[in-house]
Predict the 3D structure of the following.
Amino acid sequence: MNVIDAVNARISVRQFTTEPVSDEALRGLVNDAAQAPSGGNVQPWRIYAVNGDSMASLREFLATQAPIDEPEYDIYPKSLIEPYRTNRFECGEMMYATLGITRDDKDGRRQQFAHNNNFFDAPAAIFCYIDRQMGAPQWSDLGMYLQTLMLLAVERGLGTCAQEYWSVRHKAVTAFVGAPENEMLFCGVSIGHPQADAPINSLRTNRMPLEQFATFL
């Protein structure tokens, strides 16, 4: 697969099949993604992977824990300006439209949001942590690791969904995976085989035109 094909094929999968992901495939993804660049080759990512029996145990554990925590970082700026505000709004509206959930269907929206907590039925996931001493440059390095992993997943016939949702359940996740105090949870990534006929997986978000975000001198 050409890289551009993987880039164009990658989506945030929000409904997975029950087909398992082998431990070898998951280990290969996590390992190969570490070829991602990082400033000074610091490699700030710390990854905790769950699969099979450990995923089942995690789901049971989460059901016994507090439903929500105060996030340790702002997922979005408190006052999101244009065009970012519209980009985010349109993404949400398009997603709910694939499910036939209207703006005033607050219960439907809550139920779909809660589906995050079940990893959208994915059989495997990773949690991405970063040392608390790291700054913005190292957080961008973590983003490059995640993008590399997600493109490799497409190449290997798998789908992913990066979920900052887990930042509001960081206490439960940290207790389960045993991450040390100096590590902060950034996000989780659900991993599995996309359910091809799921309406929500038909979502393709818009991208701003080149002239809106790039300046060529």
User: Anything to note?
Assistant: The longest helix spans residues 136-155. The domain at 3-76+118-203 is CATH 3.40.109.10 (NADH Oxidase). The chain has eight helices and four strands. The mean pLDDT is 97.
